[in-house]
Amino acid sequence: MLENLSPIKIVKYLSLGLAAVSFALLLKEVILKPKQLTLPSLPSPSKKIEINLEFLEDQKLQNLLPFEEISLPEEIGRDNPFQPYLESESESESESE
Question: Domain segments of the chain: what residues?
């Protein structure tokens, strides 16, 4: 199809297409200007927020028990678990138990 068109016609069609795209962009950006967004006005809070802390002094809350302290677990195992297990260690462990 392009073999039948001369280079002059190709340039002519490309320039017409470029002119049409330029006109469409010009129409969109300049003539049909987008409206600027405005923030809606928010009413200022008229009430002051007050927090009532008297419920913390309630007797029901005073009767609640605090959390128990968790003790650390006792040490279990060998100092170096990567050392080979020796029979002398097994005898000393069984005697200590």
Answer: 1-32
As averages over each run of 10 residues, the pLDDT of the chain (97 residues) reads 75 94 89 78 78 82 79 82 74 54
- Whether residue 61 contacts residue 55, with contact meaning beta carbons closer than 8 Å, is answered with yes
The rounded distance, in Å, linking the Cα atoms of 78 and 1 is 86
The structure's pTM equals 0.33
For residues 13 and 6, the answer to whether their CB atoms sit within 8 Å is: no
